[in-house]
C-alpha cells in the first residue's frame, strides 16, 4: 500500500504591529506561525484606546505604498495558515473593528494587515510608529513612578 504524500497547507503572510507582536500580550495567538522578518509599512500608528494599563493600537496605512521618507509603522511579518488567518480575523473584529487589507512592506513583501478604518481625529499618534517600543517606555515610566 502506497503512502499518501504529505500536503502542506498553503501559507499567507500577515504583518502585525500591535498586541500580536512577539513578547506582547496577544502574541500567543501566533504560537504556530513562522516569524519571517521585522519590517515596516508606510503609515501612522495611533493609540485607539487607553485606560490604565490597557491600551489598543490602530494603524492607518498609506495606499499605495509611499516613499520611505514618510512615517512608517514598525512590526513583524509572519507566515500563517489560512485557518490561523481566520482566527486573527475574529480576534481583530474584521471587518467591523479592524479591516484586513493587503499592504506592501518596506522590505518588499505583500502581506495582510489589520487597519483601523475609523476616524482618528482625537487619537494620540505613536511617535516613531513602534508599538512595542511605546509599551516598553510606558512600563518603564510606571516603574520609575513607583520608586
Describe the structure in brief.
Helix content is 18%, strand content 37%. It has helices at residues 82-92, 131-146, and strands spanning 12-16, 34-51, 54-61, 72-80, 99-104, 110-115, 124-125.
Commentary on this structure:
- 18% of the residues lie in helices and 37% in strands.
- Strand 2 (34-51) and strand 3 (54-61) form a beta hairpin.
- The mean pLDDT is 88.
- It contains 2 helices and 7 strands, in the order E-E-E-E-H-E-E-E-H.
- It has a single domain (12-146), classed as Gamma-glutamyl cyclotransferase-like (Hypothetical upf0131 protein ytfp).
- The chain is α+β, with helices and mostly antiparallel strands and 147 residues long.
Question: How many distinct beta strands?
Answer: 7
Structural class label: alpha+beta
CATH class: Alpha Beta
Helix content: 10-25%
Shape: globular
Labels describing this entry:
single chain; 147 residues; alpha+beta; Hypothetical upf0131 protein ytfp; seven-stranded mixed β-sheet; globular
List the helices and strands and how they pair.
Layout: E1 12-16, E2 34-51, E3 54-61, E4 72-80, H1 82-92, E5 99-104, E6 110-115, E7 124-125, H2 131-146
Parallel strand pairs: 1-6
Antiparallel strand pairs: 1-4, 2-3, 2-4, 2-7, 5-6
